[in-house]
Write a structure and sequence with these properties.
Oligomer: single chain
Structural class: alpha+beta
Strand content: 25-35%
Shape: globular
Number of helices: 1
């Protein structure tokens, strides 16, 4: 299932960082707008997989409620969400 949350992207010191107002602690960064958006998608997916189930996903705020200033911007970010993913350590293959 796909989930979509608004994100607030900040420009600072030549790079970008992103936060999700509905998901405190879910943040990421990147050197460009493209990189920070890709990292935001990954951060959202990992954050939700670790802390939530379908039954307790927080509701997403309206993107209209996020005001950007200067070089900052807001956008919707989507990620895949599945309760069936397990976090098992990677196994080495013996060749």
């Amino acid at each position: 299932m796909k989930v979509v949350y608004p994100a607030f992207f900040h420009y600072e010191n030549g790079g970008f960082w992103v936060e999700f107002p509905d998901l405190p602690g879910c943040v990421s960064q990147g050197d460009s707008e493209v990189e920070v958006y890709r990292n935001a998608c990954d951060a959202l997916e990992l954050f939700l997989q670790d802390d939530y189930t379908v039954a307790n996903l927080p509701p997403a705020s309206s993107l209209c409620k996020i005001e950007a200033t200067g070089c900052d911007f807001s956008s919707l970010v989507s990620a895949g969400f599945s309760e069936n993913i397990t976090h098992e350590p990677a196994r080495r293959l013996a060749l």
